[in-house]
Amino acid sequence: MPKDNPESGADSQTIETDFCIIGAGSGGLALAAAAAAFGQRVVLIEKHKMGGDTLNYGSVPSKALLASAKRANAMRTASPFGIRGVEPLIDFAGVREHIKRTIANAAPNASPERFAGLGVRVIAAAGKFVDKSTVVAGDFRITARRFVIATGSAPVIPAISGLQDVPYFTNETIFENAKPLPHLIVIGAGATGLELAQAYRRLGSQVTVLDAAQALGDEDPELAAVLLTKLSSEGIAIREGVRITRVSGEPGRVIVEFETARGAERVEGSDLLVIAGRTANVAALGLEAAGIRTSEDGIKVNAGLRTRNHRVYAIGDVIGGPLSSHTAAEHAEVVLWRTLFRSHAKAAGRASPRVVFTEPEFAHVGLSESEAREKHGKIHVLRWPYHENHRAQAEGTTDGHIKVVTSKRGEILGAGIVGADAGELIQMWSLAISQGLKIKAMTQWISPYPTLSEINKRAAFRYFATSPSNPYVRKVIALLAKLG
């Protein structure tokens, strides 16, 4: 005999807890583990896969794919190092196995068993609010002191004529591919689209990228140009400012028609990848019953990540803004500080770093040059090129530069890096901005030689580059010399 609907309250088990977290992605997992460590009763609800998009379809598999592509390119371009370059033989089934193995190796950290061991009760079901203080999930009714929505986001499928009749990949399906893709057409020239475009180009595909706007249009154009030039030099065709009008084809043959400033054009390829942005997962959560408001970007929250319902917080992709695993984890920390320690912690916003994991990498934190000028007026822009760095010269990674923006008084407002290991090098600037350091502090540390991190210090010294020619400074130096 079937059970009654748990929303009715009949034949369902009631759970009272301190935290009820809906969604076991990066933010949900981080908050569940931390709250349990502080002795809180935690219920974690996940209707699909533990680890969310990050583990299963996002950062983890994409970096595994990029690692395979990087090794293929290293074989192809080894000649300048005295090693004969060879064209690698790509085993796509082996690449897929590498991706699956990487996910499997990371999965135990996000497993239900691990979290049960931490004292977290995991419920494998969809969660839905039935009123302002109750969530149902499977056969359970959960009441909690605090609810946290961490349901993430999903790929946007644009309304393109014919798309529904043509097979295509998204970031949730591309990592299952185990065959060559002779000509991959990518719709979307954002970070993920360009990462996957470069990966498949290096694995032997012809690649065309189409975007209605400008590639990396939200990034500093000076730095973005360096990366886009590199991608073009590798043979990736990037078409910007196009309006896609129709898609047609069949398995192994796809045709994309589009309008440009020059008129109607078309490109024919073997496969299609749609990376056209993401949308917050808010459907079927019963948000109206909970008195929670939404916008086009997702759930509306205040600076402390609390919704209109004082019991409910929302974190990560589901609130819009920066879409990244580390942003979701940082949001989890904000909620923890606010709920357990009555802190006034706020989300970092623009002070949260972001990275495009192409080669060269592109990383940024804080304000861009244009944002800094609009907000602060007079600013200083400091640069230093990779080609002046001895480690970069030895490793043949001289493309790119660092760009740092400060106020006229030396406050660090933002930093961007395009070049080798930019995602690692940006972390020093992320720390500096979070701690309110001035540019002088970035000159008062010792960088081991030879390392790429020296570019951070060299850029910082540019702030003081005009000091020796300052007449006042020269008089002080002359006076001190006489006294000494």
Can you characterise this structure?
InterPro entries: FAD/NAD-bd_sf, FAD/NAD-binding_dom, FAD/NAD-linked_Rdtase_dimer_sf, Pyr_nuc-diS_OxRdtase, Pyr_nucl-diS_OxRdtase_dimer. The chain is α/β, with parallel strands linked by helices and 484 residues long. The protein has 3 domains: 162 residues, FAD/NAD(P)-binding domain (3-Layer(bba) Sandwich); 115 residues, FAD/NAD(P)-binding domain; 110 residues, Enolase-like, domain 1 (2-Layer Sandwich). It is 30% helix and 24% strand. It contains 13 helices and 21 strands. Strands 1, 2, 3, 4, 5, 6 and 16 form a 7-stranded mixed sheet that branches. Strand 1, helix 1 and strand 2 form a beta-alpha-beta unit. Helix 1 packs parallel to helix 8, helix 3 crosses helix 4 and helix 3 packs parallel to helix 6. The termini are far apart.
Shape: globular
> Residue share in helices?
25-40%
Distance between the amino and carboxyl termini:
97 Å
Task: State the CATH topology of the largest domain.
Answer: FAD/NAD(P)-binding domain
Strand content: 15-25%
